[in-house]
């Protein structure tokens, strides 16, 4: 067999090409993936620090909230909320009725009203607290005054009612003075569930 002979002049060029290929291979298969992994880990660390800051804020507020909770429990103020004998369905229906009454009073149109199923969250809360969460999602249409009235009713009716989500879409083609909006609102409350 005849061996392939490389001219002496081409040997340094081929050696440099092989060296350049090795350097490129190391960069693409070693340095670049390591740099990308480092960036991903840096983002995870930054997110971790942000979560840690939030947890520290919660931990700092926890003693105050616990003291307030105990004060409310001792004074019997929690009896002002939904009573212990009610079920989650009854509490949800009561919330729906409250919103429907406000919408009807303001001559709005109620499109839908439903209790949002949160069974996993309820099971976790039930094991750690006497209070259980009920969330209602309502879709209605009316003037902006209706939206303001619904939010005010949610705030004023009972101390433990929260507006968790709000989506407002202005309707096109109407007089600006009589601006109509279509609103999707999520309202949550806590009720004292029956103890086992």
Strand content of the residues, in percent? 15-25%
Oligomerization state of this entry? Answer: single chain
Q: What's the gyration radius in Å?
A: 31 Å
Low-confidence parts: none
State the helicity in percent bands.
40-55%
The top level CATH class name of the largest domain: Alpha Beta
Number of strands: 4
Molecular structure report:
By secondary structure, this protein is of the alpha+beta class. Helices cover 55% and strands 22% of the residues. The chain has a four-stranded antiparallel sheet with strand order 1-2-4-3, with helices on both faces. Helix 2 runs antiparallel to helix 4 (144-157). The N and C termini lie far apart (91 Å). The mean pLDDT is 81.
Features:
196 residues, alpha+beta, Alpha-Beta Plaits, 2 domains, 4-stranded antiparallel β-sheet, elongated, transmembrane
């Amino acid at each position: 067999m005849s061996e392939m002979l490389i001219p002496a002049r081409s040997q340094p060029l081929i050696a440099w090409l092989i060296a350049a290929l090795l350097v490129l291979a190391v960069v693409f298969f070693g340095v670049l993936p390591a740099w990308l992994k480092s960036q991903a880990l840096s983002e995870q660390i930054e997110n971790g620090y942000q979560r840690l800051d939030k947890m520290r804020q919660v931990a700092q507020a926890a003693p105050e909230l616990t003291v307030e909770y105990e004060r409310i429990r001792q004074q019997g103020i929690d009896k002002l909320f939904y009573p212990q004998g009610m079920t989650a369905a009854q509490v949800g229906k009561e919330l729906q009725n409250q919103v429907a009454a406000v919408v009807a009073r303001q001559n709005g149109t109620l499109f839908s009203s439903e209790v949002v199923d949160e069974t996993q969250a309820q099971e976790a809360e039930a094991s750690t607290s006497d209070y259980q969460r009920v969330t209602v999602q309502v879709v209605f249409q009316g003037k902006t005054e209706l939206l303001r009235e619904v939010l005010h009713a949610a705030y004023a009716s009972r101390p433990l009612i929260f507006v968790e989500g709000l989506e407002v879409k202005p309707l096109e083609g109407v007089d600006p003075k009589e601006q109509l909006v279509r609103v999707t609102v999520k309202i949550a409350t806590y009720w004292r569930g029956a103890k086992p």
